Amino acid sequence: MGLRDLVYRVYEHRLETKLSKDSVPRHVGVIIDGNRRWARAMGMRDVASGHRKGADKISELLTWCHETGVEVVTVWMLSNDNLNRPREELEPLLRIIEDVTQELVDAGWRISPVGALDLLPDRTANVLKNAKEVTSHRPGLIVNVAVGYGGRREIADAVRSLLQEHASKGASIEDLVEVLDVEHIAEHLYTRGQPDPDLLIRTSGEQRLSGFMLWQSAHSEFYFHEAYWPDFRRVDFLRALRDYAARHRRYGS
């Protein structure tokens, strides 16, 4: 171990010992941004190499979350807008997503797909559905794998599902208008039954949500980090938790 690694290890330990279990977020959402730019910065012509490196980092993230007491992690791997990318870029990315999903299943995590699976190719959708089915009984950390995800689409799907539910009971639109509140919509989101994210992290220096968890993030704290996702380290994650713990959360203002 080099001197620099030793210094970081000591610093990590110091950060971790100062974290109170009461201040750790229950739900952390992560926008894993910067894979392609990382690959180009490393001189790689094939951007899929960046996506593969970024996929490997996800397992590390889940271990960090488990170690610190996080209960739910949502990892945004692919937006619904990304499905319009050129075929030669999209297909390798989908294969990587399928591979990493299976790796997470094999590692013992509980997987919950988050997104419009009907927009995905059958092969990818089936991998995600199977991951949910075979891991649904597992205790501990819940891993939301956001693929084909978009915040506006999620809200539209929730409203559509709500209307269908009430129509199946013979209720009219007028009946629904009389009772509709925010909780009715929340019950039909992809993340229904889960706590809203307390902390949202985005890497690569971009300081925007790009439609990530639009409904659920109303009271979330945001943490933006300059590093490309493949370079995001455990010490960076602990700094995000420290920053979150130091904030005075104000709901509704």
Automatic annotation (TrEMBL):
Keywords: Magnesium, Metal-binding, Transferase. Coiled coil: none annotated. This is Isoprenyl transferase. Mg(2+) binds at D33, E221. Catalyzes the condensation of isopentenyl diphosphate (IPP) with allylic pyrophosphates generating different type of terpenoids. The keyword Transferase applies. CDD domains: Cis_IPPS. Binds 2 magnesium ions per subunit. GO terms for cellular component: plasma membrane. PANTHER family: DEHYDRODOLICHYL DIPHOSPHATE SYNTHASE COMPLEX SUBUNIT DHDDS (PTHR10291:SF43), DEHYDRODOLICHYL DIPHOSPHATE SYNTHASE FAMILY MEMBER (PTHR10291). GO terms for molecular function: ditrans,polycis-polyprenyl diphosphate synthase [(2E,6E)-farnesyl diphosphate specific] activity; magnesium ion binding; Z-farnesyl diphosphate synthase activity. Belongs to the UPP synthase family. Z-FPP synthase subfamily. Signal peptide: none annotated. The active site is at D33, N82. The keyword Disulfide bond does not apply. Substrate binds at G34, N35, R36, R37, W38, H51, S79, N80, D81, R85, R202, R208, L209, S210. It comes from the Bacteria. Its cofactor is Mg(2+).
